[in-house]
Amino acid sequence: MAFTMHSHSGQFCPGHAKDQLEDIIKHAISLGYTTMGLTEHMPRTSLEDLYPEELDEPEASLAALFPRHEAYLQEAQRLQAKYAPQIHILIGFEGEFPRPDAYATLVTRLAAHPAVDYFVGSLHHIGAVPIDYDAAYYARAVASAGADGTDGTEEQAYARYYDQQHAMLTALRPRIVGHFDLVRLLSSSPARDVRAEWPLVWSRIIRNLAFVAGYGGWLECNSSALRKGLAEPYPGGAVAEEWVRLGGRFTLSDDSHGVAQVGTNYARALDFLAGLGVESLWTLRREEAHPGVVGEGGKKANIVEVEIPLENVRAVVSKW
């Protein structure tokens, strides 16, 4: 079986992704996916939190976010029921945490919706500056990490990122932590050995991993890093090795942003995991109320954890 726990569509992330959500699901079915987690980006609450591509008409962009999220939940439930004989669809969203004071409560409220099965706890910012958009924004994010009015260094930016991630983790305890080390995507040396170069950053990474392991959260092995030019998926080797040492569990995500990216680089991601000694991946399943919208009386479906041998996923991926 093949699956993803993190995906997006152009229908509900316009300007950020491509294609209609239903077309993406149909393509996943054609590849042999048996489970698909839908995780469109959550709405944001302030002009300062808009993505760069939303800034041409910021007021209109902001006003569209919450209605779009409601439309997404409705469409996701329709597709969940329609395609239940062919694929198990989980409904979620990707969380944001640009400003802890504003977003902890909002993520919790959105996650309480009876149709929402889970959310991916992600961080795309240092402070409130995006780190994965382009080099210019990344440079701004690094500069913002300085103290006493001076520009920050990359080491300070990494430390700020993992401190902000820790705040997200402690506030939300997400079942799945998204692209744990996204901060390395546009860095000057994505493959640097943080353990050796920046021990204070590494201590923060160990702290965050231990916290996630302590409450039973999962890291995704996110193959999108490979299509973006990195040599390893998220998380990279050092972080992944530490996660394995802690006994942490991996789920699998393509973080697709359209039909063309469904399952991209899964073979390489599986080889990476096998090289770490990982033998099983984990996914989720609705125990009841599937097909269907929500459980009896509007209650959430019970979500159970499912262990999948890595080689079972490889058997499907090898046919692509």
Quick rundown:
With 320 residues, the protein is α/β, with parallel strands linked by helices. The chain has eleven helices and eleven strands.
Keyword list:
seven-stranded parallel β-sheet, alpha/beta, 320 residues, 11 helices, TIM Barrel, 40% helix, two-stranded antiparallel sheet
Could you outline the blueprint of secondary structure elements for this entry?
Elements: E1 2-4, H1 21-31, E2 33-41, H2 58-82, E3 88-94, H3 100-111, E4 118-121, E5 125-126, E6 129-130, H4 135-144, H5 154-172, E7 176-177, H6 194-197, H7 199-215, E8 218-222, H8 224-227, H9 237-245, E9 249-253, H10 266-275, E10 280-286, E11 303-309, H11 310-317
Q: End-to-end span in angstroms?
A: 13 Å
Assign a percent range to the helix content.
Answer: 40-55%
Query: Can you give the mean pLDDT?
Result: 95
Q: Based on the structure given, which CATH architecture is correct? A: Alpha-Beta Barrel
Total E-strand runs = 11
Overall description:
The protein has a single domain (2-317), classed as Alpha-Beta Barrel (TIM Barrel), CATH 3.20.20. Helices cover 40% and strands 17% of the residues. It has eleven helices and eleven strands. It has helices at residues 21-31, 58-82, 100-111, 135-144, 154-172, 194-197, 199-215, 224-227, 237-245, 266-275, 310-317; strands at residues 2-4, 33-41, 88-94, 118-121, 125-126, 129-130, 176-177, 218-222, 249-253, 280-286, 303-309. The strands form three sheets. The protein has a seven-stranded parallel sheet with strand order 1-2-3-4-7-8-9. The protein has a two-stranded antiparallel sheet with strand order 5-6. Helix 4 crosses helix 5 (154-172). The longest helix has 25 residues, at 58-82. The two termini are 13 Å apart. It comes from Hypoxylon rubiginosum.
